[in-house]
Amino acid sequence: MFKEIMGLPVHVLVVHAVVVLVPLLALLSAAYVALPRFRSRLDWAVAILAVAAPLSAFVAVQSGEELNDAFIARGMQGPLVEQILEHSRYGDVLFRWVLPLGVAALLLLVVTSRHPRVPKLPSWVTPVLSVVVVALGVVSIIYVYLTGHSGSAAVWGNTF
């Protein structure tokens, strides 16, 4: 399922979505926290990104494993395999940060929605969730950079 689309590896296509969607989720979630008067304009984008960013990261991890298996099946060896494994480890860690970011962002949307079905929560819930969302966003952006850099170094490192 995660191997290829029209002859191209899924991984090389979906990583671009991760590089865009994860930082966008982190930045718009931070804006949602920092700019309460704009929440009604940001909530739909944060909600969509809170689902799309972790989903794209999941697909990137799964398709990366498929691509790695294909490389090993073809007999790839040496330092490039080590670079790919480092990239894979960063990708796994990235997903483990982006998924809670998406969940926390959705929870923050619910808590601040003032919807009648949302129960009255203690006053500390919103500030705590806000700090969690911003912290997870910062870590997620760092891991997007580390994952992307290690992957591009493995692919393009000896090109120029």
What is the fold's blueprint, element by element?
Elements: E1 4-5, E2 8-9, H1 10-34, H2 39-73, H3 79-111, H4 125-156
Main sheet specs: 2 strands, antiparallel
Strand order of the largest sheet: 1-2
* Class computed from helices, strands and strand pairing: mainly alpha
**Counting H and I runs of at least 4 residues, what is the number of helices?**
4
Q: Report the uncertain regions.
A: none
Let me know the average pLDDT: 92
Could you estimate the helical fraction of the residues in percent? over 70%
Question: Per the principal axes of the C-alpha atoms, what is the gross shape?
Answer: elongated
Determine Rg (CA atoms, Å).
18 Å
Description:
With 160 residues, the chain is mainly α. The protein is 78% helix and 2% strand. It is built from 4 helices and 2 strands, in the order E-E-H-H-H-H. A two-stranded antiparallel sheet has the order 1-2. A hairpin with a 2-residue loop joins strand 1 (4-5) and strand 2 (8-9). It is elongated. The chain starts with a strand and ends with a helix. 30% of the residues are buried. The mean pLDDT is 92.
